[in-house]
């Protein structure tokens, strides 16, 4: 990094899904549509991708890293603070909508 003078930001991942679920959900967003491209020097990743499936017992760290990249790139961010959490953003929007409603006074039940 020093020699090339390229510095990358490292993001903390706050994803509570199992690794297997994250890989399958992320890869199936792009691979079936021909949007997953591997370079010739990515033979190990290609091997993991080809062999991966139910009951796979080999290493899947490269697939997991690829899945995290896909998630980050497609805008489904589960990184960093609460501000970037899409679920929390939805709840915040709903709370803001509800705060503008007038509360009914004297709720009454049926006799």
Brief rundown of the structure:
The chain is mainly α. The protein has helices spanning 19-30, 43-51, 61-73, 86-99.
* Shape, per Cα inertia axes: extended
DSSP strand tally? 0
Major sheet attributes: none
Give helix and strand order, one letter per element, not per position. HHHH
Weakly predicted, low-confidence segments: 77-83
Q: How does the helix and strand content classify structurally?
A: mainly alpha
Number of helices: 4
Radius of gyration: 22 Å
Give the overall pLDDT as a whole number.
78
N→C terminal distance:
75 Å
- Residues in β-strands, percent: under 5%
- The number of distinct structural domains comes to 1
How would you characterize the overall build of this protein?
The chain starts with 18 loop residues before the first helix and ends in a 12-residue tail after the last helix. The chain is about 45% helix and about 0% strand. The relative contact order is 0.13. The protein is mainly alpha-helical and about 110 residues long. The longest helix has 14 residues, at about 85-100. The chain is extended. It has one domain (about 20-100). The protein is built from 4 helices and no strands.
């Amino acid at each position: 990094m020093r020699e090339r003078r390229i510095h990358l930001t490292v993001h903390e991942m706050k994803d509570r899904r199992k690794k297997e679920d994250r890989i399958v959900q992320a890869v199936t967003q792009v691979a079936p549509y021909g949007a997953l491209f591997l370079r010739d020097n990515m033979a190990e990743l290609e091997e993991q991708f080809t062999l991966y499936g139910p009951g796979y017992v080999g290493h899947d760290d490269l697939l997991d890293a690829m899945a995290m990249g896909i998630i980050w790139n497609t805008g489904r961010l589960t990184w960093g603070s609460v501000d970037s959490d899409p679920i929390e953003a939805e709840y915040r929007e709903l709370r803001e909508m509800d705060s503008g409603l007038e509360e009914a006074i004297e709720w009454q039940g049926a006799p």
